[in-house]
Design a protein that fits this description.
Structural class: alpha/beta
Helix content: 40-55%
Number of strands: 7
Largest sheet: 7 strands, mixed
Order of helices and strands: EEEHEEHEHHEH
Number of helices: 5
Radius of gyration: 14 Å
Strand content: 25-35%
């Protein structure tokens, strides 16, 4: 599992952790606070996964804060995954209220959609992907 983190002006900016399963699923977990300063790293990590054709779940459950730049990266990742017929899902299970509010206020909880259970996200990823031609 790979973990990246840092700080900006003394505030811990958060971490990204990647878990890969034997079934070819990649779970990219976003924890802590994420904003414009961490968006490029998230974009790079998603680019790598999508270029590999990995079934990808973005887990926001341990995130304490995300801003519109992070939502933009996730939306772009979902669009690119759909263009490539690669499974992509978002998970937010019993996470921070601040993240939940952002997802609700922006309407992205339904649009992405955001799953409340890891099993549901895993099933959505598998159902969204098609075998290569």
């Amino acid at each position: 599992m790979g973990t990246l983190h840092g700080s900006f002006a003394g505030v811990r900016t958060g971490e990204l952790a990647l878990e890969r399963t034997d079934a070819g699923l990649a779970v990219l977990t976003i924890s802590g606070e994420h904003d414009l300063s961490t968006a490029p790293n998230l974009r790079r990590r998603l680019d790598i996964l999508l270029d590999e054709g990995a079934l990808t779940v973005v887990d926001l459950s341990p995130a304490t804060f995300i801003d519109s730049s992070i939502l933009g990266v996730i939306l772009d990742g979902r669009r690119r995954a759909a263009d490539r017929n690669v499974g992509f899902a978002v998970l937010h299970s019993n996470g921070a209220d601040a993240v939940d509010r952002v997802l609700e206020v922006t309407g992205l909880r339904a649009e992405l959609p955001v799953h409340g259970r890891r099993e549901d996200a895993r099933a959505a990823v598998s159902g969204n992907s098609r075998p290569p031609a």
